[in-house]
Amino acid sequence: MTIGSSLWSFALVVGVLTLTPGLDTALILRTAALGRRRGAWGVVLGIQAGTLAWGALTSLGVTALLTASHLAYEALRWAGAAYLVWMGARMLIGTFRRDAADHTEDTVEDTVEDTVEDTVARGFRRGLTTNLLNPKVGAFYVAVLPQFIPAGANHLAMGVLLASVHVALGLVWSTALVAFARGLGNRLRTARARRLLDRSAGTVIAAFGVRLALGD
Q: Which InterPro entries does UniProt cross-reference here (predicted)?
């Protein structure tokens, strides 16, 4: 296998993975739909930074040690599950609090989270944390990445190069997601739309956390 054929083959595999709706999609759409442009791009960059980190760690053999150590894997799995369930539950609880406040449907509600400044740094932290606390990403890279490293190639350099392909595809897809959410504009920022959006995203994120805790 040459480097060129390796990159193309890996791009096909991670391309399908990128287009499959999941946690990253829910998090990006939700942030962008709330009008937080800088925050949405922060989430995108954080997720892709995490992907690049997993690729580098896999190439160095660190994630192989993680998957070999049951205790380390379980600790990361439970930490990730707790974080996702907390994030999803926070979104869901917030919607019921807004219902109790009896706001009009066409008013963009003022919640505690709305008062937080829309920054790239805040979104980056959320995206990076979500990605790095998901051991399934590491397990995927451990299982798949070595198969695409040609014999004789530098493992670290090739691993980072392959992960960069994943990042590039992720950035293209994320750009489309952000554009789609922003294109809907104010229609997603009414009180009713906000509740539906947060309940949908919160349910998806919390469900991922529960699945991670159950080891599915």
A: LeuE-type (IPR001123)
CB 161 within 8 A of CB 7: yes
Distance CA 26, CA 4 (A): 33
Amino acid identity, position 17:
L
Q: DSSP for 8-75?
A: HHHHHHHHHHHHS--HHHHHHHHHHHTT-HHHHHHHHHHHHHHHHHHHHHHHHTHHHHHHH-HHHHHH
Q: What is the pTM of this model?
A: 0.75
Residue 197 CA to residue 95 CA, distance in Å, equals: 9
Instruction: Kindly list the distances between the CA atom of residue 64 and the CA atoms of 67, 98, 102, 135, 207, in Å, as whole numbers in the listed order.
Output: 5, 45, 52, 11, 27
pLDDT in tens, 26-85: 889 888 887 788 889 999 999 999 999 998 888 887 766 666 666 766 777 788 788 778
Task: Give the list of residues 6+ apart from residue 3 with CB closer than 8 angstroms, or none.
Answer: 150, 153, 158, 161
To which residue do tokens 């299982």 refer? 143
Quick one: which H or E segment has residue 100? helix 70-101
Answer yes or no: are the C-beta atoms of 41 and 47 closer than 8 Å: no
Segment 51-62, tens digit of pLDDT: 999 988 888 877
What does the CA dihedral 198, 203, 208, 212 come to, rounded to 10 degrees? 130
Contact present, 17 and 160 (Cβ < 8 Å):
no
